[in-house]
Amino acid sequence: MIESLLVANRGEIARRVIRTARRLGVRTIAVYSEADADLPFVTEADEAVLIGPASVAQSYRNVEALLAAAKTTGAQAVHPGYGFLSENAEFARAVEAAGLIWVGPSPEAISAMGDKINARNLMAAAGVPVAPGTTDPAASVDAAVSAAAEIGYPVMVKAAAGGGGMGMGVAVDEAALRTEYDKVRAFAERMFGDGAVLIERYFPRVRHVEVQILGLADGTVVALGERECSVQRRNQKLAEESPSPAVSPELRARLLAAAVRAGEAVGYRNAGTVECLLEPATGEFFFLEMNTRLQVEHPVTELVYGVDLVEEQLRVASGLPPAFDPAALAPRGHAIELRINAEDPKRFLPGPGAVTTWVEPAGEGVRVDSGYAAGTTVTPFYDSLMAKLVVYGDDRAQALERARAAVAAFEIVGPKQNLPFFAELLDNAEFRSGDYDTGIVARMR
């Protein structure tokens, strides 16, 4: 097992990684910006290194500062968490070039899946279903219009280098496409340094279902079930659950088999997620993208499958076999995750601030992965995620009731927070029925 680990991240996910590493006897090194000096993850690590000011470019995306921290502390490995540099192939290469162990997939796999068009083409060649779309970037707005005429409206305009729901727009006709193309291209150039645009069929009523995969040290790729991620605002996930209420045993078998093929196609190692769009009416699903990292919503899989995914990441990176029997994988019970964000519960606009009260719910089946506590401050410099409230039950009905009680018991005073939205969601008839899609939040508003 790796003996020392630098956690190249912050907040909730840094605490999450540190918790498992400590249990395994792995020495942990946290890195933090000046804005995060008072957060719990800094003191919970065995060692902590200040790497720069609040700006992500000068701190959590500063490759030189991260590698210097690893060198001065004698770290053996680097865990990137999610976000920041977690899907940056050049960072992974730099880590390995420095003689360190990268806790993630190979830089080649990250690169292959980082470009949506290349990923689509690779998946199609591997026999994974993909939605109708372009096999090359739409080099001009006229090329996009020609592609859309062939695919059929409505279409999704997507940044080829994007991820996490960023850099996307929907066009219902040519006029809208011309507007969206320019917007997405400009956004992609600004955010990703790559203005390549993909045109893909848009499905108005669709569910977002993803499969957790794990590439083992021996080269085997296994799938640990699916997660339902259709509760979204602005293409950003708010709540997830596992198993998906929309997935039958037959569909699950097809989804998991396709996800394994996707991983095998790129020689995948470590934890990753194959994201799909599911048409509820037909049971057809299409590859959306592969996230080459640990997902925010990984706890629901952990609870349903009884697996610690961070431990498995560390075991793969150490060349060790898994701590579970891949042949015995089977879902038990039901888990729901709610992303507690520092944002207005109606318009979902960020609302940072000092935390004066922080009381987490407890009880059977309740888990809270948090990045904050009373006396800390949610700053405007980073993502608004404060905590993940995760509940588990013997079935979905019990999980829903435990979630309602946990939301009512969670007390946060200071920054704005979206707990009232989750109280509304958990009482929503459409959500409670399990028959919902990616438009549910818009319909609630």
From TrEMBL:
Residues 1-445 form the Biotin carboxylation domain. It holds the Pfam family Biotin_carb_C. Residues 120-318 form the ATP-grasp domain. InterPro entries: ATP-grasp (IPR011761), BC-like_N (IPR005481), Biotin_carboxylase_complex (IPR050856), Biotin_carboxylation_dom (IPR011764), Biotin_COase_C (IPR005482), CPAse_ATP-bd (IPR005479), PreATP-grasp_dom_sf (IPR016185), Rudment_hybrid_motif (IPR011054). Keywords: ATP-binding, Biotin, Ligase, Nucleotide-binding. Its EC number is 6.3.4.14. One of its GO terms (molecular function) is metal ion binding. This is biotin carboxylase. PANTHER family: CARBOXYLASE:PYRUVATE/ACETYL-COA/PROPIONYL-COA CARBOXYLASE (PTHR18866), METHYLCROTONOYL-COA CARBOXYLASE SUBUNIT ALPHA, MITOCHONDRIAL-RELATED (PTHR18866:SF33). It comes from the Bacteria.
